[in-house]
Amino acid sequence: MENIQYAAVLISEQSRLHLFNHIKKIIENIPFEYDDFYGDHMTINLGPLKKESRHLLGEKVKLETAHFGMSEKCFAVLIGAGGGFSKNEHPHITIAVNRKKGGTMRMSNDLEYWFRMDSIMLEGVIAEVSNNKKSY
Question: In the CATH hierarchy, which fold is given to the domain comprising 6-131?
Fold first, then answer.
């Protein structure tokens, strides 16, 4: 049996490109530099999907961006509509981190200030991830 690291909405490649094009100007105009880019998922929970949610595995879903948050260590977009799948207090997609400054993806959970942005819709699928292998 595989060791499932987390359950997530995996963002489609088309939506990921749309997201990066949408936030490109924001990232270019902030005073921080990031060296590792993601934008590929919204975590639902650590470990496998909870028993009551297993029927959602493989379901296609839509997520709406609402705000962005940043620090010198990470940058993320907050999810409004569709974010209810996530067990995080602030459902989000980590976009980038600054590893040179000690940034990690988990630091997006601790962002305190979120700034309004033009919203866009993203598409993804509910999956479980173990050692970078995805199960739908």
Answer: 2',3'-cyclic nucleotide 3'-phosphodiesterase fold (3.90.1740)
Which residue in 88, 113, 109 sits closest to 9, CA to CA?
Answer: 88
Q: Which of 6-10, 21-25, 111-115, 122-126 shows the lowest per-residue confidence on average (mean pLDDT)?
A: 21-25
Supply the pLDDT for residue 1.
45
The pTM of this model reads 0.90
Question: Residue 56: what residue type?
Answer: L
Tokens for 126? 């509910």
